[in-house]
Amino acid sequence: MHTARPETFISVDVETAGPNPAEYSLLSIGACVVDDPDTGFSVELKPLSEQVVDEALAVSGLSIERLLVEGVEPAEAMRRFDEWIRLATPEGHTPVFTAFNAPFDWMFVDTYFRRFLGRNPFGHAALDIKAYYMGLAGSSWADTSMRVLSPLYLGGRHLSHNALGDARDQAELFRRMRETAHRGSD
């Protein structure tokens, strides 16, 4: 297998005010390098509106009122994230957006990067850990839930819904899956 450039997998997790970036705000971004999870990034953003789905805030524990005062302006938050990605990705490597249920996290991050920076440093693709596991294990989609995967790869612990904490847990999940894949190919 030939890869044009070495890849740096970056685990990304977001917390939001609702299910889509067209109507709801991105509230928090957490990220870490999959193979070096101590190299992390975290930012809480000022909401673009006060529109929320109460269940989304209940899951994350974030407060729209607090973020309206203390959150980082979205353009500045995305500039900081872009800068961190550049610093965390070695020269000549391609950063690969990696997430558990990547379509959800991806749509918010891509929307905000394009809206506030005019580009997405990850390009136009994302690696979904759920789909990776489905291919690795030959499982059904239903068997890619955290309820199933946490006992296999995370000792049964649940995600905290703190974006950086979850990004680090996702990184561990993906590292362990890759180890399983490499053992299977030996």
Automatic annotation (TrEMBL):
SMART domains: EXOIII (SM00479)
InterPro entries, per the entry: Ribonucl_H, RNaseH-like_sf, RNaseH_sf
Cellular component terms per the entry's GO annotation: cytosol
Sections of the chain in a coiled coil: none
Domain Exonuclease intervals: 8-183
GO BP terms: DNA replication proofreading
Molecular functions (GO terms): 3'-5' exonuclease activity; nucleic acid binding
CDD domains listed in its UniProt record: DEDDh
Pfam families noted in UniProt: RNase_T
Top-level taxon in the UniProt lineage: Bacteria
Protein name in the entry: DNA polymerase III epsilon subunit-like protein
Organism listed in the record: Microbacterium immunditiarum
